[in-house]
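Model: You mentioned two targets. I'll fold them one after the other.
Researcher: Yes, keep them separate.
Model: Target one:
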Amino acid sequence: MLFITVPRTWYILAGLLIIILNICFGSSMVCLNAFLPVLVRNYAYDSAGLFNSKIFGLSSVQSESPELDAENMESATLMKPIHSNLPDSYAAQLNLSSHISSQGIAIGLVSGIILQLICIPLTISTGSGTSSLQYAVFVSGLWWFIFTIPSMRWLKSRPGPPLPTFYKDKLLLLQYIQYGWQSLFDTIKETARLKDVIIFLVSWALLSDAHITISSSAILFAKTDLHIKPAGLIVIGMLSTLSGIVGAFTWSRYISPKFHLSPDSAIRLIVALSCLIPAYGLLGFIPLCRQIGFGGLINPIEIYFLALVYGFLNGALQGYTRAMFGSLIPAGRESGFFALYAITDKGSAMFGPVMVGIIIDKTHEIRWAFLLLLVMLGLSLLVMTFVNTQRGRQAARQ
């Protein structure tokens, strides 16, 4: 919200605020994602530590935990690991995790659409200048602040080891920063013992980078090759977001149950279907498509339909990947591992755009970037086939 106070010439202050913004946003997403497996475990077990058979249609089985007193009952329930003697319960909890995650993605996309519908008229009505963008950023910050209040008010603290107590008040912040980095390195060391987490993160690095690059490359392609004006680019973004909402709800509620797809199978199917997007763009090299003026993103109308397909797949993918990763990590270490998840996501995001820039510079043809995207998606699909969720969960419990 402080952007509204920054004069035009104070670009260094604006840059500093952007750095702070990204740090806070990244940290909050790590914490939000870390709650996912905890919520699933809490929902799967009742207050007495019994497996909730009413939810999953399974026999109620006594918890492996010893008798709990009232004070420790809730924390033990939230930290309860998945039963080793209930293979069906594992699949049920993974499906539940995918459902909750997909709902979260869909609600977030709906929120984004509503905010855009507020900010776009505000920007236009105030002249579409620098101050207009400042107003839009202020509204975005206010939106974020308002909807943070419910989680601050009602979301309970995640059980786990307490933070260390520091006594040197002057160095308090530095000590917490040091503790955070030390925790991250400890998590990396633990990851070395979790084979399926490593395989997943390698696949996720390729997959997330490919999807981010598809989005940026499509906008660049639409602007430079198809000569679509800014209003059309806004429509493409809106269509992709709306389709993402539909995809997030549809895959978890209808498609996966109808075809009996486990979350890991759904991810592989979504990635395979995603390969069709860059493959379709490569059809533009075929002379016949150029002659008829359609196929392979020759006609501008095609990219609008492709935006719908991309959003439909990406919305579901975001929900499933969080759920699958959450099932592979040790209970009580969610924050550290989802920090690694975020680092893998954002850290790899520069590879695709850099490679696209090199391709355009060398070939003067952005369409060749679709070949790079097809290779990245194909490799991520290949690597993902080696992830064994049952084996990974067992390793996490050990």
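Model: Target two:
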Amino acid sequence: MAWTAPGLDSGGNGIPLLALHGSFGRGAVFARLAADLGPAFRVLAPDQRGHGHCPPRPGGFGVERFTDDAERLLTELVQERGGRPLAVLGHSLGGIIAYHLAARRPDLVSALIIEDVGPVMRRPEIERPVLDVRGWPATAPTREALAAAIEAAGVPDAAYFMASAVPDEERGGWRLLFDWDTMTEVQTGGVGDWWPRWLGSRCPALVLRGGHSTLLPAVLAREMTARRPGARLLEFPAAGHWIHDDDPVGVAEAVRGFLTP
């Protein structure tokens, strides 16, 4: 299977899994998952528009534009597999894109794994659907200084954001691959009531919820899986929103068990 998109390709001939990162992420955030799944799986995780090394794309940062990008990529992958659909995993905004994609093109998606996001992203169901990060620090002399500046701006742990930090070859020091103003647009584009899209597909679906999540309340997660045929819920009591970081072994086991024939 050819792969030309910027991002992560774990390689090999294993079961292909398209993995879509969330806001502030990049394909490389799934490197640990790919390693834990081993050669039985091939994880394909693109850098999405506005993130990582994805080149600029017109059309803004609404969910439909992200879904357009994923549809084009997945169409190519499915064609290369002789028409056989792929499983799609999505974290946070990536999960919203994943179930939009399944509703739009059920012929491309064989199964869904939705990591810690629900069928609505708005108040009052979600207390803080958008973190306003406009103007946050984007460069620093060292990687450690950049992480400290981000944490001082308003997050307790900058590890997920720092997955997009790279050496600044032009000016020295370290910089982020994304733009903070763009990330506010990305999050705003994901705000909405997406129940019709979540309920619009019938492939098997596994919903992963972090026990300490603030973006997928327990009540909403249970309703989400109860209302959609073929969906089931798996909770990770000790994890927060980034379950694949907080419990990487558990997530790999869940993915393997769900997708292995």
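Researcher: Noted. Anything on target two?
Model: The longest strand covers residues 109-115.
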